[in-house]
Fold:
Amino acid sequence: MASLFSVHNGFSTLFWEATWLNDLPLKEVFPDLYDISRLKYVSVAAMGGWKEGMWVWGDFGLSAREVEVLCLEAVYEEFIGWLEDFVDWKEGRDSVEWKDSEEKVFTVASCYNFYNNLRLHYGPANRNDEAFELLWKLDVPFKIKAFGWRLFRDRLPVKELLKNRGIPIPLDDLNCSFCDNSLESSSHLFFSCLVVKNIWSEIANWVGKGDRVDVECLSNFMDWHLFFRSKKVKVRKLGVVWLATTWIIWLVRNGACFRKDEWNVNNTVWNIKHLVWRWSFCGKITHPNYSLYEFCKDPLHFLS
Ligand SMILES: [Zn+2]
Structure:
């Protein structure tokens, strides 16, 4: 169904993106690890080196701490297992075979079938795939990106998810921690809850954005992203308001859920603005030494 790379010296086979170790590219078998790897589009040979006649893999552009924060240790173990099993190094350049043709050589017919199958099986790329790439680029602490990633992948421990995993929660406690009116799913808690919509609407008003609310997480992220892009906000700042808003909503929710903390929309909105101001000093900044007060009057100016 696709081209299959046969690794010899590993210099011309893409480590994550090509099909060489098994029937699928590693980025499809281990998408979570691919998301956080800093070494994309590099060859197999670039991922390690020879030491006293033995091949030794490097770190694959992955940080142990990030793997731990995202609870990917088991996935990582499996990934390493796959790679340690690979011993087929040979002299000379890597070669490509077409799995579709019986003779394993390139023919126009096999190429045609390959593209046809691609279209049938995979369809067009998801228009929101870009969101993941944008998220990892942002100038915010890693902990926050990890939170955003879990929200994108619907892996935050909201009540719906806990219930689906069979964790016992009393039925009367499954409702949204804010409105107590709907099942607490991730899309309700962060986007469609009427209480939370007030917070989004204040933030939208603050930056001069229209009040449209997309209840699907990635579409919502991209909607805000496109708004900030149209305002010439820097690439590394494009998602910070969105992340600050969802992160503070999550903290307020946890306080209300576990400690019965008091909260209100005004304080929450203020906390979001304060956080965006603090993060505006992460990474390269073009306007140093501005106060929270100045920032709040014209946030787009300081993020651009
Ligand atoms: Zn609600």
Observations:
- DSSP finds 15 helices and four strands in the chain.
- Residues 115-124 have pLDDT under 50 and may be disordered.
- The CA atoms of residues 50 and 147 lie 37 Å apart.
- Residues 240-258 form the longest helix (19 residues).
